[in-house]
Amino acid sequence: MEKSNKKPFFTATFRKSEIEKYIEKDFSERLNFIFIGSLVVGKRPMLAIQIIEALHNQGQKVFLNIFGDGVLSEELQNYIKANKLEKIITCHGNQPN
């Protein structure tokens, strides 16, 4: 028996009456983002910070709140400070439920 690299997939079909109209969104106001989780490599908090930094550098109004703690906490804080991102990123640490 020969193995196939073909994978089944599902394609949705809709009636015209079921299709919702696309609503134009206004992104001129500040976009708020949130990261919640352990500050560990597997959760990729640095990627979240760098995405916010890139958007900011492109002229987008953005803000990131980070909630959590972990082994990367100090490294992330140092990166935020070194790149002068304190006005667009705030680390809150762990918070009670």
Describe what is shown at a glance.
With 97 residues, this protein is α/β, with parallel strands linked by helices. The chain is built from 2 helices and 3 strands. The model has no long low-confidence stretch (mean pLDDT 92).
Strand content: 15-25%
Radius of gyration: 20 Å
User: Overall 3D geometry?
Assistant: extended
Overall pLDDT score: 92
Number of strands: 3
Give the number of helices: 2
Low-confidence stretches: none
Label this structure with key terms:
alpha/beta, three-stranded parallel β-sheet, 24% helix, 18% strand
Walkthrough of the structure:
This protein is an alpha/beta fold and 97 residues long. It is 24% helix and 18% strand. It is built from two helices and three strands. It has helices at residues 45-57, 73-82; strands spanning 31-36, 62-67, 89-93. Strands 1-2-3 form a three-stranded parallel β-sheet, covered by helices on one side. Helix 2 (73-82) links the parallel strand 2 and strand 3. It starts with 30 loop residues before the first strand and ends with a strand. The model has no long low-confidence stretch (mean pLDDT 92).
Could you give the topology of this structure?
Blueprint: E1 31-36, H1 45-57, E2 62-67, H2 73-82, E3 89-93
Parallel strand pairs: 1-2, 2-3
